[in-house]
Model the fold of this input.
Amino acid sequence: MKIKDIVNRNIVNLTNCEQEPIHIPGSIQPHGFLIGLKEDTFNIDFCSANCEEYIGIPYKELLDKKFEDFFGTDSFNSLKNYISNDQMLSSTLYRLAIEDKTFQCTVHKSGSIYIIEAEPVNIQDRNISEVYDQTSQFLLYMHDTHTLKELCQLVANGTREITGYDRVMIYRFDKDYNGEVFAESVRDDLEPFLGLHYPHTDIPPQARELYMKNLLRLITDINYTPVPIYTIDDTRDKNLDLSLSILRSTSPIHVQYLHNMGVGATLTISLIYKKKLWGLIACHHYSPKNLTPEIRLAAQLQGHFITSQIDLRQSNEEYEVSRKTNEELKKINTFSLTGKDEGKFNDLVKKDGILQLCNAAGVAIVFNGGIYKNGITPTDDEIQDMANWLATYTNNGSFYTDKLVDYLPNKLDMCGQTSGLIYHSLDMDSNNCILWFRPETKTEVNWAGDPNKAIVKDKNGLSPRNSFKLWKETVSCTSKPWLQPEIATAATYANSLQRQINLLIITQEEEKYRKLSELLKETNSELENINWISTHDLQEPLRKIQIISSRILSKETEIPENVHDAILRMNASAGRMQTLLIDILKYTRLKHADDAFEDVDLNKVVKELKEEISETINEKSTVINYEELPVVKGIPFLIKQLFSNLISNSVKYTAEDRNPEINITVSPVPMTYNGKDTGFYNVIHFSDNGIGFEPQFSESIFNIFTKLHAATEYKGSGVGLALCKKIMQNHQGYITAVSTLGEGTTISMYFPIKN
Done:
């Protein structure tokens, strides 16, 4: 059996220091020992080199052996019971006894391996009941605090009293994970760190990720010698993820960092808020120090107290801001933009409360190319450029920042007046928006050492910074941060303003359409009068032309043949003109037909028409066949006009080699029109065997004055089928034509089925 250690000797280098694989060091701290059991067999697959020191059995003898062979059947059964009852990583620790030694163990699963980390029960810093009393007392103190800072200070004091560390800090992260010592309890003879800031590089991303997984980390002696972990060399690159381990060995860079600070031992407790790392309880001791698991648990409880109270404390602190901004919101919401004058925006931006609702120094509204502003603002051109950029950047959404120069680095000259910004679009298709501005607020930040020198490279390789001397930085181009109540109130008002603007636009559009409607009504009335007068008055001279021409032809017997033909053509032209004028009158009057719809029996309509135009039908020996037709809802005289036009067309456009035949049929079941979900229709098909037309004219044939044949061949005004289409539209129906040149035409009429 070949055995190897899994120590990661390349754990950090210049290229991976920001992604240092600290979860797989392959070693542990020496204040306990580790064994790893296979999930299926409970055979020992991993163990630390110091097993012999604690239980008198060398690691070589332990590997690949069954757990119960060394620790006994009782310990094996209690371990399986502990695992099956899901007590791993709970506050209840697993007790392991071997000969006269007892160990308290944490157990967790890493992949397919159960990891047992054992520490001897020989440290009695505090009595358990004493720890409980201190925790209970802390709960009483907690109710006496009102702000988050007061609570954190109380937690720092309580944690230091429970654990006995020289320094306890509550460390809070900003949005970029730079840290600030927010509260501190420290030994009197030590320099305080309260208020100091630490760069995000001090705790790199992979370390923050582990703090999210493992809420408690302990280093009992900074000067420890890592204990390697051994395993059976049966697979390539075999390793063990120690993310949840209590004994996990620490990054050499972090150890050096603590050395540089003069620290001897540490305890770190994660503060998780809304599934993010909000901060840490960082405990430092200036000599080696270990804690019992009970005291560690009590310290961890302090962290739970903080995270459970963050919402409440922040709400208390923000309540007054929220109350004031909501009062201003109520005031400003009483101002109405309704009216015709966009100049009201000038009145709005000067209104009391529009700045105070989010405690801004300036405000601007961009609307339809106009800029209305008040307070400390950029120039009109800068506001217009900013509105254009923000509309694109946010996709006409919203945006806020306390450091605009991070997004617009070429606008440094604007920092003085515009470092902070809240933006809300007021239109999805333009740059209309409202913007609030805050000027620059220069602040001085005290860093614990130069944040730009977090990792340095020297002759010994990589090492963390070794200077924690106070380093002051003046922060410019940054405004006072926007508080959540201010951001929320600005968003609420922007939504309210957007609704008012939409109402204003609708009102303006309604006014515009009302005027257009009135103008259209007047125009239509004038056109109707002109149309009636022109068609009515034109018929009189046409009638006279026809009468005079008829008299000449009947009384004058010696008329030259060419003059006779000219008079006949004149008479025919006058007749065609009269027909056209009558059809135009019919067409224009269709839109005014307001007769009530009633049941119309199509069988009766066809029968009446056959009688009324029998002479025309008989003249060309026309045959009209029709099956049982339905009853439709419609205006009787219009439907009669519709069928009359279709029969007349079929008789008119007959083929010379055959007698006209017309077949009127109905579709057997109700249909939809062109597959559209517009309801169901009775479809009447009107087919003839006439001259037909080419398929490309199937739609244009219904346009007014459209004629596909010369007037010398077939008489007509080109209005008949346009009248048919207009009649079908008035009945909320459709009309279509399908034809084959030389064979005939089928006209289909879709009558809606009304309930």
Q: What stands out?
A: The longest strand covers residues 101-110.
